[in-house]
């Protein structure tokens, strides 16, 4: 009976190692069996005695680990008694995003001066003798030494970390550079004037607008530029207000017509999954934890899902709303967007931001919908294309993955499913999308070359990892939290170079 309960617990509970319920959702293809393993514990491995040799390939890694549901009853009890994890420990699941790194990097106010060598010695002296209670040992000298060693190790790590100014996750997204300073240079003023001139013309030259948008769009004109480049607004200036009014009314007509059906038997599973996923969308940015914002996202995603039954809602689509919402919100907000209280805006303004976010997200998904239909063939093809492209660009990386049995699907699935949003801070995603909006087939075709350039960016780190486990952890937790416009610009420049050098590489990709 205890064994049955233990098995059902592991398979039900989404928070324990071995569970894959939170990774991509039931609508995604099953994950590779390699990801259904837990990392080896300090105890002797249950399967064999390979613990003494570091696992270099997947097969060695797999033989030295235990399935989560094969763990002994005693280990289950230890897990249930484990306190809440300390906020600095990263989750290694593919759902883990870059914002988590920001939380771990936040400076924490210290209650007092750090412990020095004398303080550590005092700890050892105070705890050096075992204290007893009813004849039982409460603390031993070895416990005190381990505690002192842990404190000393933590201090050494803190002292060795480089000090670098943090950039806000969302605030001043348009013009962040790597140092976090947002200066308006003469060149930037000239570019802004050029954008305003193009947008003010009776019929905006969209090709010229794309040409100027490729290297980034100024914050002041980004909302209207995104609406134009996505095809949501017409180029004719006189027709824009009429089109906006009509499309916004049409969206809220969908709300009145369909949203009440979210509790119907046919749609309740879709709505339930959306309702679960919304709080996980950028969980460390206060803006997205506001009830008013979460309700907006629920309506947008539910209406899109029922209007696109071929795919319906798939985990990952929720991320694609956030850049549009933030950009259109920034049109009405001068202070930090990440801490702005959306409910303070007039109701009509909130409704307009919601409707515009829905239509622009819909335009984006129209070009990549095969990413989210049954079995997600679009993503499967794109991952294969990335593998083919990398094999031509950098044979060393490709051979390194083959040697340690790392498959591209294990890390690149998320890159394609979420358009690198889980790998980059939100400010970088918005800058990246400036170029995607300007590039022909930016979200569908050019994204492949951006992913290849992104992979090559970490060439040194990848080749330094000589085991399956280390490679997978690196690729799922790439340190981009300090990235800004400069790094994204270099990434895009490299992707542009690759596009023209290897334009024929994914022959089966562009259809």
Describe this structure in words.
The chain has helices at 2-12, 58-63, 73-81, 98-105, 117-126, 141-160, 186-200, 206-213, 222-229, 237-258, 268-277, 291-307, 322-330, 347-366, 377-393, 395-403, 409-417, 426-438, 442-457, 459-464, 468-476, 485-501, and strands at residues 131-133, 136-139. The protein contains 22 helices and 2 strands. It has a two-stranded antiparallel sheet. α15 crosses α19 (442-457). The termini are far apart. It is 53% helix and 1% strand. The model is unreliable at 5-52, 67-144, 150-155, 157-167 and 171-181 (pLDDT under 50). A hairpin with a 2-residue loop joins β1 (131-133) and β2. It has 511 residues and is mainly alpha-helical.
Brief characterization of the structure:
With 511 residues, the chain is mainly α. The protein contains 22 helices and two strands.
Q: Oligomerization state of this entry?
A: single chain
- Characterize the largest beta sheet: strand count, sense, and whether it forms a barrel: 2 strands, antiparallel
Strand content: under 5%
What is the mean predicted local confidence, pLDDT? Answer: 76
Strand order in the largest sheet: 1-2
Helix content: 40-55%
């Amino acid at each position: 009976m205890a064994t049955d309960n233990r098995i059902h617990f592991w398979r039900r509970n989404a928070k324990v190692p071995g569970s894959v319920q939170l990774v991509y959702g039931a609508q995604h293809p099953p994950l590779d069996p390699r990801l259904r393993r837990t990392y080896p514990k300090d105890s002797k491995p249950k399967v064999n005695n390979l613990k003494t040799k570091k696992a270099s390939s997947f097969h060695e890694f797999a033989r030295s680990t235990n399935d989560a549901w094969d763990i002994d009853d005693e280990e289950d009890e230890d897990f249930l008694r484990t306190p809440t994890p300390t906020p600095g420990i990263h989750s290694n699941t593919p759902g883990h995003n870059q914002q988590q790194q920001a939380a771990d990097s936040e400076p924490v106010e210290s209650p007092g001066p750090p412990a020095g060598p004398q303080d550590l010695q005092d700890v050892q002296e105070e705890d050096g003798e075992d204290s007893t209670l009813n004849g039982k040992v409460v603390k031993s000298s070895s416990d005190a030494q381990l505690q002192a060693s842990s404190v000393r190790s933590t201090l050494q790590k803190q002292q060795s970390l480089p000090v670098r100014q943090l950039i806000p996750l969302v605030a001043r997204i348009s013009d962040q550079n790597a140092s976090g300073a947002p200066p308006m240079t003469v060149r930037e003023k000239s570019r802004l004037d050029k954008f305003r001139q193009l947008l003010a013309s009776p019929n905006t030259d969209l090709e010229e607008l794309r040409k100027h948008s490729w290297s980034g769009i100024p914050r002041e004109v980004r909302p209207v530029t995104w609406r134009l480049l996505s095809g949501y607004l017409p180029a004719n200036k006189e027709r824009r207000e009429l089109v906006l009014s009509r499309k916004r009314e049409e969206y809220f007509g969908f709300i009145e017509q369909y949203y009440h059906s979210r509790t119907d038997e046919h749609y309740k599973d879709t709505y339930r999954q959306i309702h679960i996923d919304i709080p996980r969308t950028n969980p460390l940015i206060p803006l997205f934890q506001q009830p008013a914002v979460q309700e907006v996202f629920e309506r947008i995603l539910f209406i899109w899902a029922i209007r696109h039954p071929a795919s319906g809602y798939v985990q990952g689509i929720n991320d694609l709303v956030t850049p549009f919402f933030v950009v259109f919100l920034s049109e009405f907000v001068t202070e930090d967007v990440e801490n702005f209280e959306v409910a303070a805006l007039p109701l009509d303004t909130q409704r307009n931001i919601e409707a515009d976010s829905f239509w622009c997200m819909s335009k984006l998904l129209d070009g990549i919908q095969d990413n989210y239909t049954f079995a997600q063939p679009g993503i499967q093809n794109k991952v294969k294309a990335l593998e083919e492209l990398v094999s031509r660009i950098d044979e060393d990386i490709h051979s390194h993955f083959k040697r340690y049995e790392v498959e591209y699907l294990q890390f690149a699935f998320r890159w394609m499913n979420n358009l690198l949003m889980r790998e980059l801070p939100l400010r970088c995603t918005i800058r990246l999308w400036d170029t995607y909006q300007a590039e022909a087939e930016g979200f569908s075709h050019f994204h492949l070359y951006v992913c290849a350039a992104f992979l090559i960016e970490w060439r040194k780190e990848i080749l330094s990892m000589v085991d399956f486990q280390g490679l997978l952890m690196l690729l799922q937790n790439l340190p981009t939290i300090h990235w800004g416009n400069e790094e994204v610009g270099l990434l895009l420049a490299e992707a542009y170079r690759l596009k023209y050098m290897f334009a024929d590489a994914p022959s089966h990709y562009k259809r």
